[in-house]
Design a protein that fits this description.
This protein is mostly beta strands and 136 residues long. The protein is 0% helix and 40% strand. The protein contains no helices and ten strands. A hairpin with a 2-residue loop joins β1 and β2.
């Protein structure tokens, strides 16, 4: 489990324990399909049946002493992002679904190593993730 002040990222079958710096937002999109007929006098568009559930960017502090690297070779699995508790909440919000790491950027090698070398991963959602609201 990778964590930062109440935010965590958990892979269903892989243990990844880096310190999270940030978790980006998640977007979903679908195209509009041109359904204009030859006799139509204006463009007709309908929504595509295919939805792209998008990606989530995760920035982390790179631990060069760890032998566990980012699970980019793993198949799609359940990934759960838990958000920090808000004031008055007893249960944190989560975003969970089937996804996989589609991109990994290692930090630059510096001549003066620092404790703040940052890497990033991109999680691609294989299907619609489920948001569970936080609560009291």
């Amino acid at each position: 489990m990778a964590t930062l002040q109440g935010t965590s990222v958990v892979f269903g079958t892989y243990t990844w324990a880096e310190t999270i710096v940030s978790v980006g937002g998640h977007t979903a999109s679908r195209d509009a399909v041109d359904d204009t007929g030859i006799a139509d006098t204006s463009v007709q568009k309908i929504p595509s049946l295919i939805v792209d559930y998008g990606t989530t960017e995760i920035s982390y502090l790179f631990n060069q002493s760890s032998s566990k690297l980012v699970p980019i070779e793993q198949v799609a699995e359940t990934i759960t992002i838990t958000y920090p508790l808000l004031t008055g909440e007893g249960t944190a919000a989560t975003l969970a679904g089937s996804g996989f790491v589609s991109d990994h950027t290692y930090p630059d090698a510096e001549t003066k190593p620092s404790d703040s070398a940052r890497g990033s991963i991109t999680v691609t959602w294989a299907s619609k993730p489920t948001h569970t609201a936080g609560g009291v």
